[in-house]
Amino acid sequence: MSRQPDKAPTQRQLRVGEEIRHVVAQALERGEIRDPAVKGVAITVTEVRLSPDLKNATAYVVPLGGGDSKAIVDALNRASGFIRGWVARNIRLR
Known about the structure:
Blueprint: H1 11-30, E1 43-50, E2 57-63, H2 69-78, H3 80-90
Helix pairs in contact: 1-3
């Protein structure tokens, strides 16, 4: 059984991922997510990786200044439906 090496992301994947990263960061900055674990915590969105068909995205986040990262990730996972809708309404793609 031969395994294909992981392909590097395409230019479009990188561009769309960067656009999604900006929109998610904007939602976090503006305080749109009202979960108490996220409220008042500075969170950096370091990267967004997309599947080759651009249907699935994974956002990587880091709380600034430490903090309880497990609680923050759990809160963001609970708010994933809201974040998905926020991205859909605010992203600008051609």
